[in-house]
Each structure stands twice: as C-alpha cells, then as structure tokens.
Specification:
alpha/beta, Rossmann fold, globular, binds S-adenosylmethionine
Length: 267
C-alpha cells in the first residue's frame, strides 16, 4: 500500500471525498445494485463516502465494508448511521491479509482504492478468491491523464502532474483508470467490461463547477501543495499559478473535463 500519500486520512480530505461522492452519485453508481440477500464486500470503504449510496441502491443486500484505517471506519460508521442505513457492517482489514473463507461473497465493490496500491493485480487476485464462482467485481477509478480544461494552462498541467508524480513515488498510480481492463484480465477475471464516465463541466452546471471542479478535483491537487513543493517536484510559483488557472476554468466561459472508468467483471 502507498503510505506516503493516501487520500482519506485527514478531516479536510474527508470533506473532499464526501463532496466527490455526492456530486458523482448518478454518474458512477446509477447502474450498481445488488439483489436481496446477496453478500457484498466493499474493499477500502474509507469514510463511507460511497458506502451510503451502495447501501441505498441495494437495501436488501448484506454489505461488509472494510478498510485498513480505523479512523476512517469510525467516520464511515457515523456517516452510515446518520443516513439511517442498517444493512452495512464494518470491519478493519488489509486487502492483502484478509481472513475470509474462499468464495464468501457474491459481489465485490472497489472504488478509488487500486490507485493507492503498488500491487493492484495481487489485490485483485486476492479479492477474486473471496468471490463465489459467477460473482462479480465492480471497480471504479479515475485517471488524471484524462483531465483537460479551457482556458488551457501549462502551469495547471504541471500542478496535476506533480500530484501524479507524488502518488507514483508513494507506490500508487493516479492514471490507473485506463488500466482497469488489463489489470482485471491479468488477475484472471472473465467478461471484463469497462465503461468510461466523463464529467463535463461548464458554467451552465453550477453544481458541478462547485462540487466537482472546485471541491473535488482542484481541492485534491491543492491538497498536495506542501509535499509537491517540499519534495522539489514543482516550484511554488508554477504550482500556485496552476491552481489559479484551474479556478480560472470555473469562471463563466471556463470548461473542465475528467473521465472516470468503471469496470465490471465476473469470476
Ligand atoms: C481514496 S480512499 C477511497 C475510499 C472510498 N472507497 C471512497 O471512494 O470514498 C482509499 C481508501 O483505501 C484504503 N486502503 C488503502 N490500502 C488499503 C488496504 N491495503 N486494505 C484496505 N484498505 C486500504 C485507505 O485507507 C482509504 O480509506
């Protein structure tokens, strides 16, 4: 696991993950729902930002959400309780050291987790063992290389690349979305299907300007300011101009695009 840079551990980052989840619910989750009585494993639930939607879309499924971070699990439980959801249990666990019996789950859901792992195929192989034959895995990841905006800005691209480089140095991959198909195939899954989900934002969609461009994407890049500058990946002037230019893309004539990748596969 990448421990140098992982989303989801500090309060500001938790608010960002919640903003991201509520903005993207329809786009990312509209086609995920599990049948009554099915056993679902959510691997790497974080603060529960996706758990609430998952559980609401599958009210009669039995969901077990695990995470390596105790602090995130406490927050996730609070979020699920606040939403009045009763079909989710939480358990602390590391994907690489899970003690469930083989073929325990009907479905597995993994969202924004593989991007932080230095051994994503190994993680998928482990998860596959826990799936029943004929069970499904759903994986959602972003890909920062899919980002473009108007007005264009070299500084903004460099600030984004700094985040990608920082995540790479921590063992992760912020451009992993494009790799979901090969990763799932390499892990031995069948009938792999990948569905790209583009977020297109202009000022005719003020809720996306605020919820996605500002509070999700730009907030994430801004969040690495200190580490990116301190490690010498980027200079302060370029980084700050890059952030200013990302905000510029949220003005009346600005445009921002980003693509998530959602993959389905069977065991
Ligand atoms: C960016 S957060 C995503 C959380 C949630 N899925 C979401 O979409 O909001 C990544 C989560 O993966 C968890 N994680 C990272 N490595 C893990 C591992 N080896 N086992 C279990 N959880 C892990 C982190 O603790 C963190 O909560």
């Amino acid at each position: 696991m990448s421990d140098a840079y992982v989303h989801g551990y500090d309060p500001k980052e938790n608010v960002r993950l919640q903003d991201q989840a509520s903005t993207l619910v329809e786009l990312l989750h509209c086609d995920t729902s599990y049948p009554a009585d099915s056993r679902v494993l959510e691997a790497g639930c974080g603060v529960g930002a996706q758990t609430v939607t998952l559980a609401k879309n599958s009210p009669n499924a039995s969901i077990l959400s695990i995470d390596i971070s105790e602090a995130s699990l406490v927050e996730a439980k609070r979020n699920v309780d606040t939403a009045g959801i009763t079909n989710v249990r939480f358990q602390k666990g590391d994907i690489f050291q899970l003690s469930f019996d083989p073929e325990t789950f009907d479905h597995i859901f993994v969202c924004f987790v593989l991007e932080h792992l230095s051994r994503p195929v190994e993680a998928l192989v482990i998860l596959k063992k826990l799936l029943k034959t004929g069970g499904t895995i759903t994986v959602i990841e972003g890909d920062h290389g899919s980002t473009y905006f108007y007005p264009d800005s070299e500084s903004a691209k460099k600030a984004i690349e700094a985040q990608v480089e920082l995540q790479r140095r921590g063992g992760g991959n912020a451009n992993i979305g494009r790799e979901l198909y090969p990763l799932l195939c390499r892990a031995g899954f069948k009938t792999v299907r990948v569905s790209p989900r583009m977020v297109y934002v202009d000022s005719s969609k003020p809720e996306l300007v605020d919820g996605f461009t500002k509070k999700t994407f730009t907030a994430m890049i801004e969040g690495v300011r200190e580490s990116a500058i301190n490690t010498g990946i980027i200079d302060q002037t370029t980084f700050d101009k890059g952030i200013k230019d990302l905000y510029r893309a949220t003005e009346n004539d600005g445009v921002f695009c980003y693509t998530f990748f959602k993959a389905f596969a069977e065991k």
